[in-house]
Structures are given as C-alpha cells and as structure tokens.
Request: fold
Amino acid sequence: MSKSVLIIGGSSQIAQAIAKQSHDQGARVSIISRQPAPSTSAYIWQQDALQSEDSCQHSVEEALQQLPDTVFICNGVLHDAAAMPEKTIRQLNSEQLAQRLHTNVIIPAQYLRALFRYLTRTPQVKVLVLSAKVGSITDNQLGGWYSYRMSKAALNMLVKNFSLEVRRLNPSACIVSVHPGTTDTPLSEPFQSNLPQGQLQTAEQTAQRLLKVRDELTLEVSGSLLNWDGSILPF
Ligand SMILES: NC(=O)c1ccc[n+]([C@@H]2O[C@H](COP(=O)([O-])OP(=O)(O)OC[C@H]3O[C@@H](n4cnc5c(N)ncnc54)[C@H](OP(=O)(O)O)[C@@H]3O)[C@@H](O)[C@H]2O)c1
Reply:
C-alpha cells in the first residue's frame, strides 16, 4: 500500500481511476496535468499547461512536497483530431511522428529528469511509466502504427536506461514501464470493435491491476517492460 502517490498526465482516464482507488485506500494523491483541476477535485493538483523544461521542474518540485512513494506517468497519445495511426509507411508524416515522439517520449523524459534527484534519495520508491505492448519490437507480428510503436519502443529504452542510472545511487528504487492492457478510454475507442470478447477492460479494472503490479514490484524487474499482470514482456 502507498501513503503518497504522484500521478503525471493525471487527466488520462486510467490515471483518474488510479487516483480514485489510491485515495480510497487512504493515500495522498498529487496530480500533474496540462488540464486545470476540476472544482470538485479531492487531489493536490498542479497544472502544467506549458510542459516546458522549466515548468516540468517547477510542477515536480511542488508535487514532491507530498513525499510520494509511488509515481505513475500516464502521458501517451495514439491518435488525435489531426491523425489516426498509420496503416502503411505511405501514411507516415514527419510532423505527426515528431508530435508522437514529443508526447510519448520527450514529455516522460522531462518529468523523469525532474524526478531524478528525489528518486536517488528516496528508499523503496517506485515509478511506473505507462507504455504499450505494441512498443515491444520482439512481439511485433502485425506492423502498422509506426509513430506510436516507435515512440513506445523509445520510451521503453528511456525507462531501462533511467532505471540503471538511478540504481547506482539508490539500489532500492524500482522503475518500470507497464502495458496497462486494452482499456476503454478515448485512446482505444476507435479500435474497440474488433477486439476479442473479454479483452477490453474498464479504466477501474485496469487501475486495480496496475496498483496490484505496483504492490508486487520487486527490485529484480526494475528496468523491465511489464504486462498488466506483472509478467515481463520482451523488449
Ligand atoms: N487505453 C488503452 O487501451 C491503452 C493501451 C496501451 C497503453 N496505453 C497507455 O496508457 C496511458 C494512458 O492512456 P489512456 O488510455 O488513459 O489515455 P487518455 O485517457 O487518452 O489520456 C491521455 C494522456 O496523455 C496525455 N496527453 C495527451 N496529449 C498530450 C500532449 N499533447 N502533451 C502531453 N501529454 C498529453 C494526457 O495528459 P494531461 O493530463 O496532461 O492532459 C493524458 O495523460 C498512455 O500512455 C497510453 O499510451 C493505453
């Protein structure tokens, strides 16, 4: 169980479900998001609308006053109003690729850098970065979704690299990337019709699974890409 949880990318539906369940379990919940706090929010909320290097540092410093023992980073974009994921290389567009790399890799990297000092000094601290199984190069049998796959593969390398650097200074820290499983959110909404029966989880079910993964993390898996059930996925 956690006493204090920091959730970055807190407007994500999975993030909101993690926040609610953590709060219900008695943890202090801090959120960092580009979105403003809802007027009814029960959480400590830092709005980071700019997500510049400076604003990330500032938001993190404010949030760290709550001494989190767990950090979730939930930022991630598969599609938006401008573009759906590519079915073929012929649809690859440099601007779209750059945007996906920005949201899916650069934003998490900025926040991890801002967290670095704290993570090297906090015993047993845990960081879970939401990634995706489609970012596994070994697991890729289908192709397509170039920008999202490439950005999540890069995110997995970021997390692996970062975990090694933190471990040298704080061997008790555990930092992983996690595939949350296909979850009913705006991100998966256009792709839900062809899913096998039973594969789609609610955000609440996914949050429950991710909090169980958090509770059962061991130091041996630090740096790994984990599935929603805590098993290790190949890079
Ligand atoms: N849903 C699924 O089936 C599924 C499957 C595999 C992996 N995932 C991963 O799980 C994570 C959460 O997904 P979700 O389904 O909960 O998504 P969601 O509800 O669509 O939430 C989107 C998230 O991305 C952030 N975001 C959106 N646009 C951004 C931008 N321009 N710059 C920075 N951040 C931006 C939002 O942060 P703000 O709070 O700052 O707005 C929010 O955290 C993502 O990393 C996603 O790739 C989801």
